[in-house]
Structures are given as structure tokens and as C-alpha cells.
Fold:
Amino acid sequence: MSEFSGLDRREFIKVGATLGAGLAAGACAPAIASTAGDRPRPSAAQSMMGVPFTRMAQPRIAIVGTGLRGRSVLHELLGVGNTRITALCDALPEKVALAKAQLEKAGHPSNVATFVGERGFEALVQRDDIDLVYTATPWEWHVPVCVATMNAGKHVATEVPAAYTIEDCWTLVDTSERTRRHCIMMENCNYGYNELLVLNMVRAGLFGDVLHGGAAYNHDLRAILFETRDEGLWRRHHHTLRNANLYPTHGLGPVALYMDIHRGDRFDYMVSMSTPEAGLTKWRDDHQQTEMEKNGERYVTGDLSSSLIKTARGRTIRLEHDVSSPRPYSRINSVQGTKGVFEDYPARVYVDGMQPAHQWASLDGFKAAHEHELWRTLGTQARTGGHGGMDFVMAWRLLHCMREGLAPDMDVYDAAAWSAPGPLSEASAKAGSAPMPFPDFTRGKWSEARRSF
Structure:
């Protein structure tokens, strides 16, 4: 999750109103249609698919957004080691001070460069001691930080989603290809233990030909959304702007890898619908959040956004988003093929011929043969990190690719396609669940087989 503590309430409402107007204009079907399909690649640009980093012995990293998530990422980077943190930026000076103190406590030099202000990143990216900028800001700042970073000649990594308009997705792709700098969406769930284990099982053919997957971000965030700090300062406001899947990538990223999206297949089109909004209004009223009601805050995001995605090879993906209902956490995380099926939350598996008919089996029996090498190597250390260890594995893998001169596991095309269900779900729901085409951000290179991890 992204965190940026820099907008006070008045400033955020001002920014949000501007964004809301643009989103309302961009969500209608004609705007989506105008950006669907292939766009010609500018003559000076080249594909970034499979492009390796230049080897660097000690990557130099700057962090923009040093709130809760930014400092959590900083903790993971410091845990990996052999990394220099050269610059920090946040809109609030106290958040920068907390991150600087965190560095000093870990024994890093105290002369790290610091920048304060909403647009402090514009000066930060001009420094010549930065290889990659990591942005952990609120969603609306991801694209500005990413574009400024790439235009300054640095690679950039962003929290999720990378963008939430189709035009901004194209902006990231075009800028990455023009500047020859990577734009990487740091989807930590792709590095989860179960996700990588199941990816190995898919690659080993245990499920046969993969036909369907399930993905979600179903997480009761009602209390967090109404906090007067951290994400409560900005995230709830998005529920007043769009009736859409606001946060599609956590479940979708792993399923995209199960299905070789941009590695032999691609998202073709999607249809979406949403339930009425009820959960946030009820929580606000039940907890006497009178200030929000007095300010005329009204939520338009349906409690449950449900979508179906069709791929170019004919496979299907069920995608959900619900952060407004009382429910246990689930990313669904399922994959179904001609020989078997895996379902998560709780984790269970069925492989035809390997167990009694109609009976689920535990995932434990498959771990010895299919545990991913990243977890086999890093598991003990990783489990001290955030989100069950996936945050550490994510940070380790990014830095490893930079040091060894490897291509990143996910690239700008993944960032764009996995973020696109946000605006596409809004457009589809508004148009009576009409199909909405995915742009081909790869400009035809999606069919080339390749592997991450």
C-alpha cells in the first residue's frame, strides 16, 4: 500500500477536486476507446521489455514519500544491505526527520539529502547520486514522480497502482521507452510464499493448461479509511470520486504471471459491475463521524466491484475489490486448469489423479518439490519483514537485479496493464457493464515468451 503524509486536508480536497473532474471526463466510453489498441511507438523510442539494468555494485536509492509505507520500504532496503540511501523527500518535514533518524539508527551516514514539499521530488531527481527513485506517495502522485524521475535519467519504482487513468498508463510507457529508463510497479504480492509456490506448480504443468484465475483485494479498511492520520488523510477521498476497482493489482499481478500475461498472452477486454455503496456511509454514521457528513462527503464507489477479464488466448479472470464490508481478508488467488485447481484463503489444492476424487488437499505436500528458490534461499530472513516476508523478497530481488545487471521481474508494460482495470472498470460499470478493451501497451510484443524470477 502507498503512504504519503504530505497533504493536509484542505490541500488534498483541492487536488482531489481537480482529479475528480479529469476522471469524470476520462471515464466515459469515447475517451477509453480513443486510447485502446496499439499506439505507434515514437521514432526515437524503443521497447523496454527484457532490457537489463546496467550493473551497479551498490545501488543508490532515493525515497519519495516517507510516511508509513515509505519507512517500511526503507526498513526492507536496509535489511537487504549493500545499498546507499542518498535522498529522502516528503511533503511534511517531520516525516523526513523520522526516515532520517531510521537511517542513522541503522548506522548509515547522517548527511543524506532531504527535500520537503509536495513537489520537492522535482529537485531530488536532479541529483547525480541516484540510480533509482522509489515512490511511496498517494496514488495521484505516482505518475508525476515517475515521469520526473525518468526524464531526469533515473530508474523509478512505484507503489501500486502505478496509474489510474488510461492516458497516464500510456504516459508511463511512452516516457520509459523514450528515456530508456525502467518504471517498475512494486507489486509485493507477486513475491508472496504461496504465490511463488503456485507459480512453480503452474510452470511444472500440475494444473495442465491454465484456463481461469481469480484475483481480488477484499480487505476491511473501514476503520483505516476514517483515521485522521496516514492513509485516512487521502485514501477515503477516492471513494467520493469514482465507482471503480480502486486497487486492482494485489490479486491480479500474481494471476497475470500464472497466465503469462505479456509473456505469451495479454488482457483483451473486461466487463465490470458494482454493488451500491453502503458500507462506508454506514460505518461513518454508526461511528458518529459527523465532520465528514457535515462537509457533505458522499461515497460513490460501490462496496463490491466485480469484473471479468478475457485474455487474447481466451482465458478468463475474475477480479474483485471490496474494502467497505465486514469480512476476512482475501486476495482469492486461484488458478484452474485442465488437470487441477488451486484456491487460496484458505490454501487448498486438487490435482487430478494425485488425491481422492472431490477432496481438497493441503498445499504442504507440494512444498518440497515446488517451493520457489527465492523463498528457499531467503525464507528465514524474509519472514522478519513486512506482509509475511513478501516485502523483503521484493526488495532483495529488485536490488539483486540492479547489482547483477538483470532485467527487472516486472516492467512498465506490466505496471500499465495491471493498473488499467481501475479506469476500465469505471467505464464498463458506467456503460451498463459494456466490454472495455485493454490497450496493447507492449505494441505487439506480448506474444514473445519470457520468464520473470
Remarks:
- The CA atoms of residues 339 and 352 lie 5 Å apart.
- The longest strand covers residues 210-218.
- The radius of gyration is 21 Å.
- The longest helix spans residues 9-26.
